[in-house]
Amino acid sequence: MAGAWASGLLVSFITLVPLWLFTRRFKKSTRMHSVVVFVLGDVGRSPRMMYHAESFASNGFETYIVGYRGSKPTTALLSAPRAQFFYLAQLPPFFSHLPFVIVAPLKIIHQLIAILITILFTIPNTPEFIIAQNPPSIPTLVVMWFLSRVTSAKVIIDWHNLGYTILALKLGETHPAVTMAKLIEKFFGRSAYAHLFVTNAMQDFLVSQWNLRQVGLKIVLHDRPPSHFHRCSPSESHELFCRLGLTLTSSSSLQSLLPNFELPRSTPFTTTVPAASSICPPRDGFPSPVHLPTLREERTALLVSSTSWTIDEDFGLLLEALEIYNRVASVKGDDQSLPRMLVMITGKGPLKDMYMGRIQEAQRTWDFVQCISAWLDTADYPLLLGSADIGICLHSSSSGLDLPMKIVDMFGCGLPVCALDFACLQELVQPGWNGMVFKSSEELAGQLISLLRGFPRSPMLETLKSAFAKTPDSPSLSSSHSFGSLIDAGQDVGGKWEWTSWADNWNESIRQSVLGHHVSQS
């Protein structure tokens, strides 16, 4: 694979550099206040990069988003007047029938050529900045290094994780390909104009281990959800579950788990009740009834876990924990009985069929727990989080230096989490305050049991939810921020959380420190 990558890179450079030099005289000059937001993957499944694009566009930059077509991007990004999408060409489908040893180098060569053609020739202007996420490191970092040389664009690397540590999960830490990947990532990653880090731990590691102290600007930019992430009202939840009605009746086991409901008057989690409203004209001297949604007292507890179904998330832990919960919940005579539980797992990925097959087989004998997988559009996903009772995160972090965006989204929706512990998780999750941390399936099961006793008025769960509520001592939150903001991870200001939105955090960290005078003042 390393040889295929090297040969693909060489062929691409030999082919495109002379062509770029020839056409350079016909190309427009560098456009001030312009940026390429580069994603070597599905743009719609890269939330942090989409948020970067929204921020650049709102700060006066002509913003060119380059990546692969797939999931629908956010509505805010699609409607941004200065944002344009340039999708990379995919390898023709018939190549998938060829042997891997042939497809691999062809895919790399095709990928490199597609990237260079798009950024060098297709976008309207040579960009002033290029921001790219890492990983994937190969060929992203090498291509960004090359483009910075031939276009003089300033490259910003957003360090989500370390690519070689992800490769090591598949091949082992001592594999020669992992060693080569680490060397490539370290060498080409050091050449950026600016480095953004998702955690303090990531910055500390790269500065000390990769000698970034004297190389480029360095900014820790903790993740934040956008402003439309918030805790849902009963009306919003009711509308969501009405749309998901078919999903919630997909099997007889689900129908037996959930309370009876009749759309659109009721769902498994909400119902409508008549209420007098002054906005309706009275009839015969009596106010007209208005049916208002409210949460059902006898509702099933709703847990949500979002995933990419990759090897760094062990859903076997969740399966074992749910087995324990079901066994304990089945015991009769408990003064504070446990509720039935629906677990919705959102996302797509390579290990989905394997894990869901195991879950479906196990839950055939369960009476108190059922799991379903679902793929939601970008508008419904935050509504599901904002309607759930507990979030589950199984992200283990290949490097121990990144933080899962899914927890950020959950916190933005006022949703407490139970999260698998790893080295720097304390920068985000504070046990007993905004969530719980577990290291085993037994611990997770115990936390679910403790949090759900007495549901829907569980004292422990209400304590965690109260951490997201606005208090008189909390910094002022505008209606546009709502819960679409997050604690400045790891920072405890006088015992209270410091709330900020993605936009506020980005403007303070990136606009002032990285872009400086480049930012349009218009």
UniProtKB/TrEMBL annotation:
SUPFAM superfamilies named in the record: UDP-Glycosyltransferase/glycogen phosphorylase
Keyword Cytoplasm: no
Subcellular location: Endoplasmic reticulum membrane
GO MF annotations, alphabetized: chitobiosyldiphosphodolichol beta-mannosyltransferase activity
Keywords in alphabetical order: Endoplasmic reticulum, Glycosyltransferase, Membrane, Transferase, Transmembrane, Transmembrane helix
InterPro entries hit by this protein: ALG1-like (IPR026051)
UniProt protein name: Chitobiosyldiphosphodolichol beta-mannosyltransferase
Entry membrane topology: Single-pass membrane protein
Any matching Pfam family: Glyco_trans_1_4
Role this protein plays: Participates in the formation of the lipid-linked precursor oligosaccharide for N-glycosylation. Involved in assembling the dolichol-pyrophosphate-GlcNAc(2)-Man(5) intermediate on the cytoplasmic surface of the ER.
GO cellular component: endoplasmic reticulum membrane
